[in-house]
Structures are given as structure tokens and as C-alpha cells.
Amino acid sequence: MIRSELVEKIAAENPHLYQRDVERIVATLFDEIIDAMANGDRVELRGFGSFSVKRREPRMGRNPRTGESVPVEEKHVPFFKTGKLLRDRLNGG
């Protein structure tokens, strides 16, 4: 499912809301999650899962073309951990 499909589904299930309002709500939700993660905060959506940022240590990598060692800088990557309700639904529970 892509963002526009999500907006269409929410708008269809809530006929009292205009589609442009649903688009604004979805955009705001995603923006807030992104902003919180950019600030290093954890975002938890009960039953769905939690978003956090993991730090990857700097290390020595390898250029696959030349085999030469190259330094890889520290980086921060997004991490998602599923909630129990989502895990149970995915596993037929």
C-alpha cells in the first residue's frame, strides 16, 4: 500500500471527511514521526509497533570492485519493531 492508497481508504471509510483533510492528516502524522526520529526520540504506536533510530558504529569496509579497505562513517538508521497485535495478526493469531 502506498500513501495515496492509504488516503483513499481512510477517506472512503470516513465520508464526513474531505479527501484533502485526510491527506493533511496523513502527511502530518508521517511528518511528526519523522521529526521525532530526527530528534532521536522513539515513536510507539500501541498494537502496531515502534519506530526508533539505531546508531551504527564507524568501521572499516571494503570496496567490492577493488578489494581496497575504506572507512565507513558512523550512521543512524531507522528501525521498526512490530507490536504484539500486528505480529499476532500476521501469524494468524
Tell me about this structure:
The strands form two sheets. Strands 1-2-5 form a three-stranded antiparallel β-sheet. A two-stranded antiparallel ribbon has the order 3-4. It is elongated and about 60 Å long. With 93 residues, it is of the alpha+beta class. The protein folds into two domains: 1-41; 42-93, HU Protein, Chain A. It starts with a helix and ends with a helix. 41% of the residues lie in helices and 29% in strands. It contains three helices and five strands. α1 packs across α2. The longest helix has 20 residues, at 19-38.
List the helices and strands and how they pair.
Elements: H1 3-13, H2 19-38, E1 43-45, E2 49-56, E3 59-62, E4 69-72, E5 75-82, H3 84-90
Antiparallel strand pairs: 1-2, 2-5, 3-4
Helix pairs in contact: 1-2
Which tags fit this structure?
about 90 residues, about 30% strand, two-stranded antiparallel ribbon, 2 domains, about 40% helix, 3-stranded antiparallel beta sheet, alpha+beta, HU Protein, Chain A, 5 strands, 3 helices
